[in-house]
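step: validate -> pass
step: tokenize input -> pass
step: predict -> running
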Amino acid sequence: MVYLISYDLIAPGQKYNAVSDAIKKASYLNNWLHPLESTWIIKSYNTAAAIYENIKTAFDANDRFAIFEVTKNYYGALDAETWKTVAKMFD
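step: predict -> pass
step: emit ->
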């Protein structure tokens, strides 16, 4: 499955590196994409709830994040190479 993870790290105590590392680790075979500043797309065979449990410790109590399952029905204004990478996640 492909998931979109979006977050707001609320000051103080923003731990961007810890969050990035946790999200990368939650992906299947290092299959992740970071197309926007606070948005990741990952491939994982875990549920959204399991991904949440795996990455929640990287966030501070005042941070906010959400995990959404993505379907092949997507569209937007990203560069062509990014869209190719997104499409490959569904293979």
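step: describe -> The chain has three helices and four strands.
step: cleanup -> pass
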